[in-house]
Amino acid sequence: MKKSYFDKDLMKSLSFYAVEDKTKSWYFLIEIVFILTALEILIFNIEKLIFQFFLSVIIGLLFIRFFVIYHDTLHKAIFTTSKFARFLIKFFGILVLNPPSVWERSHNHHHKNNSKMYASSVGSFPILSKNQYYSLSKKEQFIYIFTRHPLNIFFGYFTVFLLGMCLIPFIKSPKKHFDGFFAVLSHFFLSILLIHFNVQFFFFGFWFPLFFSSMLGAYLFYVQHNFPAIKLTTNKKWDYFFAALYSTSFFKMSSIMHWFTGNIGYHHIHHLNAQVPFYNLPKAMNNIPKLQNPITITWSLKDASECFKLFYFDEEQQKMIYKEKSKL
Fold first, then answer.
1. Whole-prediction pTM
2. From start to end of the chain, where are the E strands?
3. Could you say which of 141, 186, 251, 292 has the lowest number of CB atoms within 10 Å?
4. CA 130, 135, 136, 138 torsion-angle sign
5. What is the pLDDT along the chain (328 residues), one digit of tens a residue?
6. How far apart are CA 200 and CA 273, in angstroms?
7. Domain Fatty acid desaturase, which positions (predicted)?
8. Nearest Cα to 266, choosing from 243, 238, 292, 240?
């Protein structure tokens, strides 16, 4: 019989935080739009490259926060009744190469399959068992290596988002994912317009923030589901409660970085109940003892290195292991 890890009392306690505060939702949406607009105007009006670069990084971080608002909106955790807010937020998703139809399909798939050992990389970075990996062809092994490689994270703007989230889904299913094509088309024409208008503003006000946020976002998503202490299950034994608490990490960071990343670091709680708005996640962790001892990772180079060295899951040892000479 399949073992269940479900904790009724924990889920009941967590449900208290799965309620939207509409005033907060609107405040945070207006706040992010106002700050981004102000910084874009500032970048346009200053000339020193060092200041433009600094503001560009800040805008990239703000893109992460805005993306979490987008993420929660599509999860129906916030803005469930406002068509205008949902339109504005989905427009942002198009702008940053995250078309809603593709994101909803892939991310919902991720939530329903987090921690399973299989070859699908829909909505996540694939994890194979040792036996599965060696059963692949050389070409398939190369794809698996590259998908999990730091280069794929670093160039996430091109690989994860432009290709993976937009072009490939559209090519595979044009009618279902036409917004993927629309995102690329809008991105292309906006880029041409900005380059013609002001090349420096295009780079620091638009392209680099998006490149930076794509890289950081891909990195956060990778390490939240690929870390040394991760526990995995086969498809038949899968349990979403187990997946949330043992296959999903808590990313410990400063309060400033938690703000910029929209509390996405409280990822174990999000996977337990995706209806908890991002601004309630810290409260839930602080007030529910059972959530206070998660598997934790940090920004340290040691943690990053350990996460990236992980290669496949050894079913005999029941843990992720490294592979010798696993260079791309």
1. 0.93
2. 250-251, 296-297, 310-314, 319-322
3. 292
4. positive
5. 456 677 889 999 999 999 999 999 999 999 999 999 999 999 999 989 999 999 999 999 999 999 999 999 999 999 999 999 999 999 999 999 999 999 988 888 888 877 776 545 555 788 888 888 899 999 999 999 999 999 999 999 999 999 999 999 999 999 999 999 999 999 999 999 999 999 999 999 999 999 999 999 999 999 999 999 888 876 667 778 888 888 899 999 999 999 999 999 999 999 999 999 999 999 999 999 999 999 999 999 999 999 999 998 888 888 888 875 545 5
6. 43
7. 53-288
8. 292
- Using alpha carbons, select from 2, 1, 10 the residue that is nearest to residue 245: 10
Cα 137 to its chain centre, rounded Å, is: 29
Query: What are 312's two structure tokens?
Result: 């496949």
Residue holding tokens 């380059």?
A: 195
Strand partners, 313: 129, 320
Neighbours of 264 (CB within 10 A): 23
Could you tell me which of 118, 126, 103 has the C-alpha nearest to residue 236? Answer: 118
CA angle at 119 for the pair 125 and 138, rounded to the nearest 5°: 100
Give the residue carrying structure tokens 């926060």. Answer: 65
State the DSSP string of 190-221.
Answer: HHHHHHHH-HHHHIIIIIHHHHHHHHHHHHHH
